[in-house]
Amino acid sequence: DTGVSQDPRHKITKRGQNVTFRCDPISEHNRLYWYRQTLGQGPEFLTYFQNEAQLEKSRLLSDRFSAERPKGSFSTLEIQRTEQGDSAMYLCASSSPGLAGGMTDTQYFGPGTRLTVL
Amino acid sequence: AQSVTQLDSHVSVSEGTPVLLRCNYSSSYSPSLFWYVQHPNKGLQLLLKYTSAATLVKGINGFEAEFKKSETSFHLTKPSAHMSDAAEYFCVVKTSYDKVIFGPGTSLSVIP
To answer: In this model, does residue B91 exceed pLDDT 90?
Structure first.
C-alpha cells in the first residue's frame, strides 16, 4: 500500500501526559499537512511542511503542540501536557505541487489517529 | 476572508433517487474547490476537484459538481444514489498553496 499511513490509529492517554503521533506520506510527495477533526466538524488546518521546512502554523497550534519533519519524509506531531480538549482525530495529508505550482494539487489523507484524553 | 458553507448538515435520500449536496464559498481569490468523502472509520477520499479548466467537473462513483462563479457555489450531485454513498461529505476551498478550508460537512443517508 503506497498511501499515507499514520501511527497509532488510536491513543488513549491521561490528562497531563505527552503523546506523539507519526505520519508517513506518499513517498514522492514533498508537502505534508496536519489537521485536527472534532466530532461533527470538518478538519481544521494545523500546520504544513514543504520538505523539512515548516512553512505555516495555525493559531490552533498552541505552544503545547510541536511538529517536525526532520528529513523531509515522515513527520511527527507531539502534544505536551494533554488536555481533555485535545481529544480529536488528527489527520495527516500529503501532496505534490505538480506543474500548477501547488494551487491545484490534491491532498491525500491518511486514516487518522484518534486521541482520547481522559 | 475565505469561508465555506455547506447548507445542509444532513441529507436523506431514497436509493435510486438524485443526490444534491450544496456548497457555497467566499473567497477573495480564484479558488480551487474540492469535494471529499469520509466513510465511517476510513480516511478522507477525493471525489473531484475544480481547477478552472471546466465548470462542470466529473468525479468518481458517478458524482459531479458545477462551479458557478456568479452564485459562488459548487454543488455536488449524483443522478442515482446507492447505499454505499452513505457517508460524510466535505466541500473544500483552497485559496493559496497552504490555505485549505473545509466546510462543516454534510451527512448523507440513503434509505433502501
So the answer is: yes
Mean pLDDT confidence for B31-57: 88
Q: How far is CA A114 from CA A20, A32, B44, B106, in A?
A: 12, 19, 14, 21
**CB atoms A104 and B102 under 8 Å:** no
Q: Any idea what DSSP says for residue B43?
A: -
B48–chain A Cβ distance below 8 A for any pair: no
List chain B residues with CB under 8 Å of A91.
43-44
Instruction: Say if A91 is an interface residue toward chain B (CB within 8 Å).
Output: yes
Of all residues in chain A, the percent with pLDDT exceeding 90 is 68
B18's grid cell: 438524485
Separation of alpha carbons B94 and B51, rounded Å: 10
Residues from chain B that touch A100, judged by Cβ atoms under 8 A, are 51
From CA B56, how far away is CA A12, in angstroms rounded? 44
Whether A5 contacts A74, CB under 8 Å: no
Structure confidence at residue A49 (pLDDT): 92
